Amino acid sequence: MSFLQSLSMPLGARAEPEAPTREPPRVDEAHRRRVLVNMVVAEALAKLSIPSDWVRCTTLEAVSRSGRPRTVVQLAVLKGDDQLLPMIPRLQESIDRELRRRDPRRADWLGTICWEFRGQRDARFAAMPDASYWH
After folding, report:
1. CA-CA distance, 100 to 7, in Å (whole number)?
2. Does pTM surpass 0.85?
3. What is the mean pLDDT of residues 45-60?
4. Which segment, 8-12, 64-68, 116-120, 123-127, is predicted with the most confidence on average?
5. Burial letters 53-72, b for 16+ CB under 10 A, else e
6. Is the pLDDT assigned to residue 99 strictly greater than 60?
7. End-to-end distance of the chain based on CA atoms, in angstroms?
8. What does the pLDDT read at residue 130?
9. Could you tell me which of 47, 30, 27 has the C-alpha nearest to residue 97?
């Protein structure tokens, strides 16, 4: 019974106490998404036979300009840059496809998947060409 409803009761009348409403415990959505992303990335790496210590997955929670929560997935390449680079489009496609399959609302919360290359520069890779090269 609300406070306003109790005011309309005669003085001295006792209201029956309201039974507490029990809501099921709410799983933190950010945590659920983080677990899902990490699981999907681990499975994608295994499926493509990429050693798990070559890529580290981090999720960052952000808020879009419209105020909606978004999850940014950052994949850091720690080893095997030269071998992994040609596989990155396929790996990202595999991760995105599996996220879409497991959570149809993925488009509502997935902000972007970004890559960072943290390994040592391989001497076999050429240095960046002069800016005139690109024109």
Report:
1. 53
2. no
3. 93
4. 64-68
5. ebbebebeeeeeeeeeebbe
6. yes
7. 75
8. 85
9. 47
